Amino acid sequence: MSDVRGTRTGRTLPPWWAVLLVALAVAGLAFAIGRFSTFGASGAGAAPGNESPEAGFARDMQIHHAQAVEMSMDIYRTTANDDVRVLAYDIATAQSSQRGEFYDWLVKWHLPQRGDQPLMAWMTAADTGHDHTAAAGASEADLLTEMGMASEAELERMRSQTGTEADCTYLALMIRHHQGALPMAQALLELGSEPRALQVARGVVATQSAEIDLMTSLQQRLSCTG
Which helix (H) or strand (E) covers residue 62, if one does? Predict the structure, then answer.
């Protein structure tokens, strides 16, 4: 992967890109191995139920990943910055693939793609340090904000911007978006038991933590403010 990118940009990738590439390669290998043997190790056990943390994670992360793909493709089409473009492409392709797997889990478990519980309600028993408010009767808009999701107004603002301004807005929104995903993955690691789901959750924590570090470095290089 690094050779291809080095050829495309015509330069040597900086050290912080190399760190991310290693993290992505490890997570991608684990994802690929598990994708072709999904649930093979646990086939003798009972499938997760409708109220399980695995089902809740799969449903909520489909919603979460869908917006990450949308934001990333928006900036991919418009940015002139090679680093932002490569990052956006990686996020869009990786999360699109994972979203498809989450959908497939629910199909295999014979569960509906949408549950009847509020977003993140399945996390209530988890001790993630996250200020989860579903049990307090929060609105769906509040829960989406808590998940790190961008509002439609924020997305429209990014789309109306150009150049470094748009890149900086994308990075800020995506950092917040990733930060919202980490407690969900950590909650599944605490509450879940399905081996493939736990493997993916560990990959989410590793990859998105590395991408947060990368995006923070990009913000500094672009002199983003606010």
Answer: helix 53-78
> What are the tens digits of pLDDT across the range 75-123?
999 999 999 999 999 999 999 999 999 999 999 999 999 999 999 999 9
The count of other CB atoms within 10 Å of the CB of residue 10 is 7
Tokens for 9, please give them. Answer: 């940009």
What pTM, to 2 d.p., does this model score?
A: 0.80
Rg (CA), the chain: 18
Q: How far apart are CA 152 and CA 192, in angstroms?
A: 32
The two three-digit tokens of residue 82, written as one number: 């090679």
Amino acid occupying residue 132: H
Name the nearest CA neighbour of 96 among 60, 72, 125: 72
Q: What angle do CA 142, 132, 104 make, to 5 degrees?
A: 85
Spatial contact of 196 and 204, defined as CB atoms under 8 Å apart: no
| pLDDT tens-digit map of 176-214 | 999 999 999 999 999 999 999 999 999 999 999 999 999
Separation CA 44–CA 56 (nearest Å): 22
Can you say whether the dihedral through the CA atoms of 63, 65, 68, 74 is positive or negative? negative
C-beta separation of 84 from 167 below 8 A = yes
